[in-house]
Amino acid sequence: MRLVRIVEFAGAALLLLASSARAEDHRLTIKDFMFTPMALTIKAGDSVTWDNADGEPHTVVNLDGQFRSKALDEKDTYSHVFTTPGTFKYLCSIHPKMVGTITVEAK
User: Which of 64, 67, 52, 66 is nearest to 98 (CA)?
Assistant: First the structure.
């Protein structure tokens, strides 16, 4: 009986660790010539998906050249996986006043 409980506890602990280590997909909306939210903090390994909900095309371009979307028409999306910690500033190259920041923390 005691061995069964130890095995059940170990299994539950492994499930908890596995679920906490999963990467998340964060969503950003492009609407009214803004990225919403403008600043987002995530963990290394997570992805970010930008959804264009505007009637105008927009891009997502990292200022350091690490990622770049094509022109996104309304209802188009762009995703990027962030693998290293740091601060990543980006803008819309068509409308450069549209800016945002992704802060990536270590897992």
Answer: 52
- Tell me the residue ranges of DSSP E strands in the chain: 25-31, 34-36, 39-43, 47-52, 61-62, 77-81, 86-91, 99-105
- Radius of gyration for the chain, computed over Cα atoms and rounded to the nearest angstrom: 19
Average pLDDT over residues 54-60: 97
pLDDT band, very low/low/confident/very high, at 107 (cuts 50, 70, 90): confident
Kind of pairing, strands 25-31 and 47-52? parallel
Pairing of strands 99-105, 77-81: unpaired
* Sequence spans of domains, the chain: 23-105
Spatial neighbors of 35 by CB under 8 A, at least 6 apart, are 28, 29, 50, 90, 92, 98, 99, 100
21-29 average pLDDT score: 91
Which architecture characterizes domain 23-105 according to CATH? Answer: Sandwich (2.60)
pTM of the complete model beyond 0.85: no
DSSP type of residue 71: P
